[in-house]
Amino acid sequence: MLMQLLPFLPYLMLAGAAAGILAGLFGIGGGAVLVPVLLAVMSMLHVSTADAMAMALATSLACIVPTAAVSAISHYKKSHVQIIILKRWWLGILIGTLLGAQVINYWRSPYLMLYFAVFLLFVAINQLRPKIPVPRPLPARPWHYLAAFVQGFLSVLAGVGGGTIGVPILLAMGLTIHHAIGTSAVLGFFIALFTSIVMLVTSHAPETAPVGSVGLIFLPALLVVTPISSLMAPLGVKLNKRLPAEWLARLFAGFLLLVAGRMGYLALAG
Q: What number is the average pLDDT over the span 257-262?
């Protein structure tokens, strides 16, 4: 199975390293890096356009599971995780990911990426605006349930761990940048885990899928990416701890702009 990936190994290894660092640094799963690379690999392996997007999303989320686990544990050890958010968000995350996984299975439209790219653009612009930190209590529970559902649903449709949505939402709720990123890292692990289980159980490998595919997940790419990304995640956590909060917010905004550009390109190119 791995032989067919030999021409693409350097790209997958670099993508895995970048995904790991981003997971620790920003509390994301790294799907914004993995999806474009996996989509290119699927296309070069002669997978049809519609199936290539679906497989890239599903494989990206599967790759994120171990990386997000390492990142989440590292952030928890540094006391960057708000347990009360996890208790209030887990059900909404579960429902959102289940629905998102079914949308990928039955509605394989690249234009979903375009909608998400526009959303990320607005989030990035909001992050770049100067803010004066204002401590405030957490909002009412219904807002938590809605936010959790939105993060789970949209994250699955974009093949990302959820930090690109979860971090801005948690910042708006009054969390510090470090707590927002750490808590989002844990939520991203559950998003990727729930979706991967659903994809393995309910999806079927397309007719054009390469050898080594289980449902929509391409196992050879998973075996290449996950060890590297898992090893690099702690490095991202160390950078997160050392960087000032203001710099971290600006870096995160710049990252969102890059993600929005990539997602928009994928949608328009498709």
A: 79
